[in-house]
Amino acid sequence: MTIAADALQPMVTFGTNPGMVVGISDPVPDGGDDPSFRKALSYMQIESGKPMTENPVDVVFVGSCTNGRLSDIEEVARILKGQKVADGVRMLVVPGSQQVKNQAEAKGLDRIIVAAGAEWREAGCSMCIGMNGDTVPQGKLSVSTSNRNFEGRQGTGARTVLASPATAAASAIRGRVADPRTFA
Ligand code: SF4
């Protein structure tokens, strides 16, 4: 099987498991009468038939063991450079390990991230699992580079949209779920 990966658009989740995913320009699918689908959209306060880019963002989390590599932070810094995180959006960037943190700081990536208005944090799980008080407030929408978007994963009532580091950075700047290709 051959997959033309360069023909794929950035993907984001719209529901409450990692498989409920849609292209960033495509409308959220209609799951019909499937009760689990309806429950997921109700929890997420997401409408079928509209692209995810219509959803305002409250929190952006870049990190986790899944997307906290040096290359992820480099991508985020590339997009954030010379930009500002949108008013009202809280953005955390959390390296996946102390080694990654040291490497990123040696390259000056932390300064780019802080200059854009994001928080540069100690390595750890952080908002992937609502660790150490790093939680998304009730009902708020988070674009997160972590790996799970189950109900309450990032805090009670938190609404999690899984995305790539590039999509997360673009969303922080735009203040809504955003296509990172506009920052190419
Ligand atoms: S909580 Fe998240 S970042 Fe921490 S080990 Fe589990 S999946 Fe990885």
- The H-and-E topology, N to C, reads as EEHEHEHHEEEH
Strand content: 5-15%
Residues in helices, as a percent range? 25-40%
Largest sheet: 5 strands, parallel
Ligands bound, unique: iron/sulfur cluster
Strand neighbour order, sheet with most strands: 5-4-3-6-7
Radius of gyration, CA atoms, in whole angstroms: 16 Å
State the secondary-structure class.
alpha/beta
Give the distance, in angstroms, between the N- and C-terminal Cα atoms: 29 Å
Structure summary, number of beta strands: 7
Q: So how many helices?
A: 5
Q: How many structural domains are formed by the residues?
A: 2
CATH superfamily grouping of the largest domain: Aconitase, domain 3
The low-confidence parts are: none
Key descriptive features of the protein:
single chain, 184 residues, alpha/beta, Aconitase, domain 3, 2 domains, five-stranded parallel beta sheet, two-stranded antiparallel ribbon, 7 strands, 13% strand, binds iron/sulfur cluster
